[in-house]
Amino acid sequence: MEETISLKEIYQTIKKRLGLIVLLAVLAVAAAAIISYFVLTPMYQSSTQILVNQAKEEGQTLTQADLRTNVELINTYNVIITSPRILDPVIEELGIEQSVGSLRSQLTVGSEGNSQVVYIRVQDESPAMAVNKANTIATVFQREIVELMNVDNVSILSPAELSANPAPVSPNPTLNMAIALVVGLMAGVGLAFLIEFLDNTIKTEDQVEKHLGLPVIGAISRIDQNNVEVKKMSMNNRRTRNGRESFGA
């Protein structure tokens, strides 16, 4: 016979283990808060924009073919920007002790939609260094692309600037704690049902009927040991008092 779980049983299981579920959720949120505020290093982001657009001579107009060529070159430029040919001079000019691979991991390059604008985003522990890296990468690329591609069609559209009160882009404590809360609740509910599934003891009349298939014709009520002790003391006191009264008579 196939066992089914009713909504009532689910509710009773969750209600029975509610303390465990809440405890796990609280511990998960606390762990996420501690890691976000005290363990993870805040990262700051800065970005600059470059424009891929062939310089035109006086009286010359750009054709649709020129614009299409510039857009098609962007994918190539994105690869070149993250190459050692650009990042090595950047590291040398900044005077930092960092490998090309490490700098590349901090760098994000892409195009703004289907436009001729390319963004260069850099994340770093220092907001000032993030600005310096973004601007230096753009400057070095603008200089080196002339020799690499024999074209002069890159100009800096919007350099990175250091704001007065920079805010880190990661970690996000609120988001981390919200995720931890959901995970903690899910783990608590799962553990509650696991404990209930592994518990094969019979505690109620309904469980007797369900598991043994036998009707319940009677039940023994739970006896409170404290009440028994109180009743015994009361009976002893009554007997003592009756004995004294009989002796006095």
From TrEMBL:
Keywords, alphabetical: Cell membrane, Membrane, Transmembrane, Transmembrane helix
Membrane topology: Multi-pass membrane protein
UniProt KW Repeat keyword: no
Domain spans labelled Polysaccharide chain length determinant N-terminal: 3-94
Domain Tyrosine-protein kinase G-rich: 142-194
Transmembrane segment boundaries: 20-40, 175-195
Cellular compartment(s): Cell membrane
PANTHER family: FERRIC ENTEROBACTIN TRANSPORT PROTEIN FEPE, TYROSINE-PROTEIN KINASE
Similarity annotation: Belongs to the CpsC/CapA family.
Protein name: Capsular biosynthesis protein
Organism of provenance: Evansella alkalicola
Lineage per the UniProt record: Bacteria, Bacillati, Bacillota, Bacilli, Bacillales
